[in-house]
Design brief:
Structural class: alpha+beta
Number of helices: 4
Number of strands: 4
Shape: globular
CATH superfamily of one domain: Flavin-binding protein dodecin
CATH class of one domain: Alpha Beta
Largest sheet: 4 strands, mixed
Strand order of the largest sheet: 1-3-4-2
Distance between the termini: 67 Å
Strand content: 25-35%
Length: about 100
């Protein structure tokens, strides 16, 4: 029985871990306010979460996931605030790289 459980655990690890690491490689990166104004990033939208009954880290992770779903390469959290009721609210701007090919030619 122990050998079977070990085999299942090893098999699961070989299937799941590569998928997790591949998904993490595609997550958008957090960029600073200064970088957003540098001309290399194009604003493509905003994300807003209100009344989130989770930890601040989980709300930030939700921003990354939502930014990825929307095709963003970068994001900048503009507000992360705990409300009076103990819930979290957050806003973020999402960005994609600006095409600078025209400037270089």
């Amino acid at each position: 029985m122990k050998k079977m459980m070990l085999a299942v655990a090893m098999f699961s690890t070989t299937l799941i871990l590569p998928v997790i690491s591949q998904a993490q490689d595609n997550f958008p990166v957090e960029i600073s306010y200064k970088e957003t104004k540098g001309g290399n990033w194009e604003h493509i939208g905003d994300i807003s979460f209100t009344n989130q009954r989770r930890t601040s880290e989980e709300v930030l992770e939700s921003i990354r996931i939502e930014a990825q779903k929307r095709g963003a390469v970068g994001y900048h959290v503009t507000r992360l605030q705990m409300m009076n009721n103990g819930f979290w609210s957050a806003n973020a701007a999402i960005y994609s790289p600006r095409n600078n090919m025209a400037k270089n030619n």
